[in-house]
Each structure stands twice: as C-alpha cells, then as structure tokens.
Amino acid sequence: MPVTAFFRGLAVGALTLGCAGAALAQVPPAASDGGPRRFEIVSGPVTARAGPSETAEPVGVVQGGAILANLGCTLADGAPWCEVRKFRGGARVFVPGRHLAPAAGPDGAVPMGLDSSPHRARAGDFDASGEIACAQERGQALGLCRAEVARGTGGDATVVATFANGFARHLYFLHGEFVAANATMSGVGTDTDWRLDGGQHHLRVDDQRFVLSGEFVFGN
C-alpha cells in the first residue's frame, strides 16, 4: 500500500468507527508503545506546528526526506497528527500524518519500538567485541581501547569503549549515525564531532577521540 494511502486509511477508518477510543486505536502508536521508531517526511516541505491542528502556531518547516523520531500520534478533526522531533534531537513539534511514513534504517529494516541496545549494553549483553583506535586526552596519540557493541535494528547500536585505565564511554548510534555519548566526569557527552570517511567513523566526545569501523558497529 502506498505510504500516503496508509495514513489516509487511518483517517477514514477513524471516521467510520465513530468512537473516540476506537479511533485512537487506528493511529500508529508511539515508539515507546511499540510503534515505528522513526518517520520519514515523504512529501514536503511541511509546516511544523505547536499543536495537532492546522490552526496551531507554525514553529518551523521540515524538509522532505527528513527522518524524525516518533513520539506518538493522535486524531484531530478526523485526521492523524504525529508529534515528532529530529532523530538527532531538537524541539518536539506536530506534523500531519499524511506527510509521514515509517522510516527504514540504512539496513533496510523498519525498526519498531524503542532501541534496546543501550539497555543491553548496560547489562553487558553484547554482539561483538574487539579493539578500536582511541585517545583519552586532548592531543594524545591514538592508542587502542577494548570495545564491545550491542546492535539494534534500523542502524541503531551502542558501543562501550574502555580505555587502558578502566574508564569506559558509551557511544550511541541512531539511523547509522553517531549522535551522543553517556555523561561522565569527562563531560555530558553532547560536545561531539563526527564524520564518516571510507567506512570509518571518526568521533570526538569532549576531549576523547575514537575511530571505529561501520562493520564493527553495525555488523555489515
């Protein structure tokens, strides 16, 4: 079924049922409730609004092809509206469901529900381990860290890199991209740089640096 028809069908089904509770059951659940983890804007640009209504305050424009985190959808005037934000973080906004489709990750899979890889990494449940290039201090030459990875679906993964002194950093990947690290005494984990070069992910988190392959992170 075409993606636009999918969401139009939700609206038609909601009107046919004629019951608020039943209508909401036709709307895609939030990722936290097992729904699509992310949406893609399939027709844009789209005006983002502060609430689920065409009369709500416009708060920005989302371009076609943008990948957005699914924070939950609702019916407004018989049509689905979804609360979303950029998957790398940002303000929560509403866009009409007719512009959205469940987003496939770089691996071709449409991830459903929340990413379990951070929880698995904290529990020590890893898919692979090895060594990666790393440096703990600013200006330090790259050495080696032990690394372990918990892989999710849709290009999501959590890598735990451990330096020789035992200090560990959790590195979070979403939709095939590095997005952040965990907060430690070294910093909050959001002061980062990231680039992909020849299949190698080059990361800076606070004063620390890491180089690791996409094959290690995602298993492909």
Descriptive keywords:
220 residues, mainly beta, SH3 type barrels, Lipocalin, eight-stranded antiparallel β-sheet, 41% strand, elongated, disordered N terminus
Report on the structure:
With 220 residues, the protein is mostly beta strands. It contains four helices and 15 strands. The protein has helices at 3-17, 20-25, 117-122, 214-218; strands at 38-41, 46-49, 58-62, 67-76, 79-86, 93-96, 100-102, 128-135, 143-151, 157-162, 168-174, 177-181, 192-197, 200-205, 208-213. An eight-stranded antiparallel sheet has the order 12-11-10-9-8-15-14-13. Strands 6-5-4-1-7 form a five-stranded antiparallel sheet, covered by helices on one side. It has a two-stranded antiparallel ribbon with strand order 2-3. The radius of gyration is 20 Å and the shape is elongated.
The chain-level structural class is mainly beta
CATH architecture of the largest domain: Beta Barrel
Strand order of the largest sheet: 12-11-10-9-8-15-14-13
Helix content: 10-25%
Tally of discrete structural domains: 2
Rounded average pLDDT:
89
Uncertain residue ranges: 1-25
Any idea what the shape is? Answer: elongated
First-to-last CA distance: 29 Å
Biggest sheet: strands, sense, closure?
8 strands, antiparallel
The tally of strands reads 15
CATH class of the largest domain: Mainly Beta
